[in-house]
Amino acid sequence: MTPWQKGRVTTHDKTSDFRALNAELDRVVAYTDPVKRKQALASIWENVRDEKDDAWGMYLKGRMLMILGKPPPFCLMYLQKAIQMDPKLHQAMTTVGLLLRLAKQLPDALTMLRRAEDTAREDREASNFVKAACAADLGGLLQVMGDNEAAEEAFRRALAEDADCWPAYTSLAVLHEKNDSIEEAMATLKDAIDRLPEPAAPSGYTKEQTQCLFAAGVLATRRNEWNEALSIFTKAYEANPVHWNILSKIIQCYAAMGNMEERDSTIRKLYILVMQGKVPSDRYCREQISTEHGNILVFEMFQLAYESGKPVLFMQWEKTSPLNSPQMVSFGSNEGINRIQREAGQVPEGYRLYHIDAHGLNGAHCALEFILAQKKPPYDRVRQTMLDGMLQPMPATGGSLPTVDTFNLN
């Protein structure tokens, strides 16, 4: 039985025990079972709660306080104390640097992350993985601070230390894309994909490996290379079938390729994840539409919210809307409007009134079309009207109430 399982670190070599507990914490934070995770964290905290004089213990205490949601200044106090006790503890320097970055104290964060990388490079016991991570963390901060040249150098140092430093590939690709070097960005990500294990581990690809695949797939969609994007996203999904955002991208690929049967089949898979509580979002992007004026994104809500008046679907420009075009076109059904129209005899029993609306700047709004239906019209029924609305100048007036449409999905 290891010392921490007894409830207290009891051996004479506390530093070794606390180093082992830090490694244990790395594994615990990845637990997906919340009960198991909570129990393991409680056990680790029991061992470090009263620690005051060991550098690795103070480092562990600071990390635990972060996980427990304590204020950053409180966590920093213990982490900085650990560095004072051991000026070579680059692990604590990295954590302090990242906390300072989150606190927007970028110059101080930069100083600490530079120190962490330099110290790790001098540490004979530090693995190539750790040295690469230090360089990648520094590169990420430099990128945020706008020093792209220094950031690229840091990412390349990371890959020189460890060719499997997945975040460095993704970050390098982002730099290349910002410089309009799309081919170089894709080549960087393909280098990463070529290094992925085949097949993936039983637990799937790691978060960082999946991000490389995801970034490569997104880049392919921006180049309208939908077949390649589908291949990349499918590879990611097969290794990680609970990643709902990957399914969303696969849906977009099938839509762009005109394969509506596979699109709808994939949408059903996504809704199964929703019912299982595995989707931490109220919407997904079901289509990207390329136009000469820019990309239009189509979002669908997972839940109908007629009482609140929220839309079921909406289109919006990925960037600034062109000319006088609407900012957004929505499709939904407002319960209040339906109640009024029923009382006026305009909406028969068993029907609902749905509406497509254009939304402009400063709250401008107009109706484009009304639809009476017994069931919610599917996306393909309203897509063209919504798209036409996005591509035309913001109308001055809306449409009128139509005659009864016996549109039925039975």
Q: SSE string, helix = H, strand = E? A: HHHHHHHHHHHHHHEEEEHEEH
CATH H-level superfamily of one domain: Tetratricopeptide repeat domain
Rg result: 27 Å
- Which term fits the overall shape? elongated
Protein described:
- Helix 4 (72-85) runs antiparallel to helix 5 (90-102) and helix 8 runs antiparallel to helix 9.
- The protein has helices spanning 14-28, 34-48, 55-67, 72-85, 90-102, 106-122, 128-144, 148-161, 166-178, 182-194, 207-222, 226-239, 244-257, 260-275, 335-343, 379-391, and strands at residues 283-291, 294-301, 313-317, 328-332, 352-359, 365-373.
- It has 410 residues and is an alpha+beta fold.
- Among the domains are: 164-281, Tetratricopeptide repeat domain (Serine Threonine Protein Phosphatase 5, Tetratricopeptide repeat, Alpha Horseshoe); 294-391, no CATH class.
- The protein is elongated and about 80 Å long.
- Helices cover 55% and strands 11% of the residues.
- It comes from Amphora coffeiformis.
- This is Tetratricopeptide repeat protein.
In short:
With 410 residues, the protein is α+β, with helices and mostly antiparallel strands.
